[in-house]
Each structure stands twice: as C-alpha cells, then as structure tokens.
Amino acid sequence: MLDLYAGTGALGLEALSRGASSATLVETSRSALGAIRANAEALELEARVRIVPVAVERSGEILSAESPFDVVFADPPYALVASGAVADAIGELVSKRVLADDGLLVLEHGKNEASPTIPGLTLASSRRYGDTVLAFYDSSVVA
Question: What is the pLDDT of residue 143?
Fold first, then answer.
C-alpha cells in the first residue's frame, strides 16, 4: 500500500496492522518523518515500512520503480485539493502506472471541496464523515 502525504504514518501503519504486507509512505515534513520512524519502531514494523522523503509531486520516478500499488491513501492538506495540485500530482503518478490496474485510491478532503477529477481514474463513490469526505477512485478502467 502507498500512503501519500503520510503525516505521522497512521494510515500506512494501520494498514500494516490489518494485513498489508508492506507500506510506502511519502512525506516531506521533518517532524512528521521523525514521527513515522518513531511510530514504526514502537510498533516493530520498521522492516515493512519504506519512507520516501520527497514531495508527492516529485515522487513519480521513485514510486514507479516500486509499483504498482493495490491501494493508495492520500490525506493531503485540504488547500492542495482546492488548488488542483493534488489532482495534478496524483494524475502524474497514475500516468506512471504507480496504481495497479485494478487498484483503489482513497482521497481525503474537506466537505466544502468537490472530489476532484483525477486523470486516469474514475470516482466510484464518496462518503462524508463530519467535515471530511473520503473519495474512492477506481483504476480498473485504465488501459
């Protein structure tokens, strides 16, 4: 599984605890990177975690060497969703075949933003939880 904008790594580490074989976490914040390392160590999961300390929009070459990923979680700063930067960055990753042909992308964003159109993916559904929306994208139609 791939965790974009990983923050403390909670989503990726949770996926590992629920059966994912490995997790790749993309994050640039130094404090967040420290938290990811500490959390992975505390949970004794460091052997199954790969940390990619670059911006998501610059991670394509690194991630394409490890891909494809079956599941991708993205929890970006909501302002990046509103600006279109997230759709562009994820669209670039999709074009590099980072997401498996039958893969799933889950994008978290604020309730006041529409789920963005992401090139190469189809918005399958979305669910609102308070002020948060989880948008589920399907890649099965990608040729």
Answer: 42
